[in-house]
Amino acid sequence: MGLLTALDGGYGDRADALVVDGTALSREQLLGAAGAVAERAAGAPGLAVLARPTAETVAAVVGGLLAGVPVVPVPPDSGPLERAHILRDSGATLLAGTGLPEDADGLTPLPVSLADRPGGGWRPAAEDGDRTALVLYTSGTTGAPKGALLPHRALAAGLDALADAWRWDADDTLVHGLPLFHVHGLVLGVLGALRTGSRLVHTGRPTPAGYAAARGSLYFGVPTVWSRIAAETAAARELAAARLLVSGSAPLPVPVFERLRDLTGQAPAERYGMTETLITVATRADGERRPGAVGVPVAGVRTRLVGEDGQPVPSDGESVGELQVQGPTLFDGYLGRPGATAAARTADGWFRTGDVAVIGPDGFHRIVGRASVDLIKSGGYRIGAGEVEAALRDHPGVADAAVVGVPDPDLGQAVVAYVVVADGGSGGSVGSGGSGGVGGSGGSVGERELIDFVARRLSVHKRPRRVVLVDDLPRNAMGKVLKKQLLDEGR
Ligand code: MLC
Ligand code: AMP
Predict the structure, then answer these.
(1) Phi and psi for 479 in degrees, rounded to 5?
(2) Residues with Cβ < 8 Å from 247, sequence gap 6 or more?
(3) Which pLDDT value is given to residue 428?
(4) Per-residue burial over 150-181, b = 16 or more CB atoms within 10 Å of its CB, e = otherwise
(5) Contact 188/156 with Cβ under 8 angstroms?
(6) 3-class SS at 217?
(7) Is 436 exposed, middle or buried (0-12, 13-18, 19+ CB in 10 A)?
(8) Is the Cβ–Cβ distance between 58 and 190 less than 8 Å?
(9) pLDDT in tens, 151-172
(10) Is the pLDDT of residue 412 over 70?
C-alpha cells in the first residue's frame, strides 16, 4: 500500500491493531473502511477531513491516501473564519468525517462509517511518491495559515528515518493522544504506526491517566503533556515499563526531563522538526539522551547553521545561528504561494527553519530560540501572532492589538494579547493588569469576551489566555510595535 506498508498484511493483524479513543479496529477493518472512503474520493482535487480524534478520522485520512487524493486535515475546533480559509484555500471539494455540519461547509459531505466496505472492483491508486499526500495548514508570523504540501515520498522518508533512529518496529505499541491534524499526532502518531506495523493506542486526549493505562512500549508527547505526566507521580511510574518516551514539537524543560527520568527510570528522547520539514533531528534510541538537546540529524538529513550575515557558523557547541536543513523529508512548498515557498529556501536550496540553534562538535543539536517573536509555540501548537491580532481587530470594540508568547510553566508559551479599545468604550471590565506605560484602560469589551471571540473565529487553542487592555501599544520610531517590551511586561 505504498506509504502504509502495514496495510499489506505482512505484519499480521489483530482485533485491536488500532485503538482510537476506545474504539478498536483490526488493520483489515481499517483497510475496508478506508477503501470505502477511497472509492468515493477518487479523482477529487482534495479531501478535507474534520480531524476529530476518532477511528473514523483515521479511516478518512487513510482513504484519501489510498485514493491518491491530497488530504486536508481540518482542526475540529476551528471556528468559521479559519475553517472557511482552509477549505477555500486548499481547493478541497469533499468533507469527510462524522457529525459533519449540515451544510458540510459548502463541500460535498463524505460521511465515514467503520462498517463501510468498498465494492469488489476497488483498487488503491498506483503508487506515486511525488503526489501530495497531505496539505497541513500551519501558521506564519503574519496572515492566515498556509498549506504545506507534503508528498508521499517525504512522509515515507521521514518515517523510515525515525524507525531507524528509534528502532521502531512491529513489536512496538505506540501510545499518544495528540491531535490528528498536525505532523506529530497524524504523521508520526498514525501514519508511523501504519508504516512500521506497530500497534497504535490513541488515548483520545493526551491525559496522564490515559497514557498510564495504555501500557505501550513507545510514547509520544508534547512537553505540556510530559510536564503534566511528570506532575502525577503514579501515572508517570506506570510508564517505567516502556521502551522509549519521545518528546517534541516544543522545547522540553530540563526539570521535566529530569523528573521523568527519576520517576520512570529512563530519560526521555527529544526530537525536533517542523510541518515543512518533518522530523529532521532526533535523539537515537541507542544514543545519549541529553537534557536540553534534540539529538542528531536523522538518516538522509543534513543541517547547518548560518549567521545573520549569511556566513556559516561553526559547530563548536557555542556559536549560535539559524538552523537550515536539507534532505528527503522536506515539503514541496506552500499551496498557491510561490513567493512564500521561495522565501523559505536559500539560494543554494536549504530550508530556513527560523529556529536558532547550536550544534556541538559531536553533532548534538540544541534549539535555543526562534528568530521571530511572532511565532508562538503554546502547548506544542504553532500560533502566528499576526493571525490572532487580525482576529482581535475584527472585533468592533478593538482599535488595535499586539500578541506575544509569554513564558508559561504549563504551555511553554501562553498567548497574551495587548488590546487598545476602540473609542466610545464605556467602563466594562479591565484585563489582568499591565505596568509601566501600559496601564489598564476602561473599555466596552472585557477580557473574557475577547478570548471567546478569538476562540470562536479561529481554533480554540489559538485563543489568548490573557488579555491586557492598554491605552497605547509601545512603538519604535518606524511605528513597529515593540514586542520585546510587551514580553518583559507580560512575564
Ligand atoms: C477552553 N475551551 C474553550 C474555551 N476555552 N472552548 C471554547 N471557547 C473557549 N474560550 C475548551 C477547549 O475546547 C477544550 O475542550 C478544553 O477547553 C481545553 O482546551 P485547551 O485549553 O486548549 O487545552 P489545554 O489543556 O490547554 O491543552 C493542552 C494540550 C494541547 C497539551 C492537550 O495543547 C495539545 O493537544 N497540544 C498538542 C499540539 C500538537 O500536537 N502540536 C504538534 C504540532 S506538529 P475539550 O472538549 O477539547 O476538552 C509539530 C512538529 C513536531 O510541532 O515537531 O512535532
Ligand atoms: P510546527 O510547524 O507546528 O511543526 O512547529 C515547528 C516548530 O516547533 C519548530 O520550528 C520549532 O520552533 C518547534 N519545535 C519542534 N520541536 C522542537 C523541540 N524539540 N525543541 C524546540 N522547539 C521545537
Answers:
(1) 90, 5
(2) 221, 222, 223, 226, 257, 268, 269, 270, 271
(3) 38
(4) bbbbbbbbbbbbbbebbebeeebbbbbbbbbb
(5) no
(6) coil
(7) exposed
(8) yes
(9) 999 999 999 999 999 999 999 9
(10) yes
52: Cα within 13 Å, side-chain hemisphere: 11
pLDDT of residue 464 exceeding 70, the answer is yes
pLDDT single digits (tens) 110-128: 999 999 999 999 999 999 9
Identify which of 383, 429, 421 has the alpha carbon closest to the alpha carbon of residue 401.
Answer: 421
Give residue for cell 498549506: 147
Please give the grid coordinates belonging to residue 268. 526521555
Q: Is 380 in the pocket of ligand 1 (CB under 6 A)?
A: yes
Question: Which residue has a Cα nearest atom 36 of ligand 1?
Answer: 379
- Calpha distance 82→15 (Å, rounded): 37
Concatenated DSSP letters for 101-164? -TTGGGSEEEE--TT----TT--PPPP-TTSEEEEEEE--SSSS-EEEEEEHHHHHHHHHHHHH
* 355 SS3 class: strand
Length of the chain: 491
Q: What mean pLDDT comes out for the span 413-442?
A: 60
DSSP state, residue 291: T
Assign 461 to helix, strand or coil. helix
Q: Give 353 Cα–ligand 2 centroid separation in angstroms.
A: 9
| pLDDT score, position 443 | 53
Among residues 226, 228, 178, 239, the alpha carbon closest in space to that of 204 is found at: 178
Query: What's the CA-to-centroid distance between 378 and ligand 1, angstroms?
Result: 9
* CB of 157 closer than 6 angstroms to any ligand 2 atom: no
Burial class (CB in 10 A: 0-12, 13-18, 19+), 125: middle
User: Which residue is closest in CA terms to ligand 1's atom 17?
Assistant: 460
Our measurement of the distance from residue 189's CA atom to the centroid of its chain's CA atoms, rounded to an integer in Å, reads 11
Q: What is the pLDDT of residue 424?
A: 62
Nearest CA among 28, 26, 35 for reference residue 121: 35
In contact, 132 and 153? CB cutoff 8 Å: no
Query: First and final CA of the chain: distance in angstroms?
Result: 50
Residue to substitute in 182, 367, 368, 381 for testing ligand 2 pocket (most ligand atoms within 8 angstroms of CB): 367
Map residue 240 onto helix, strand or coil.
helix
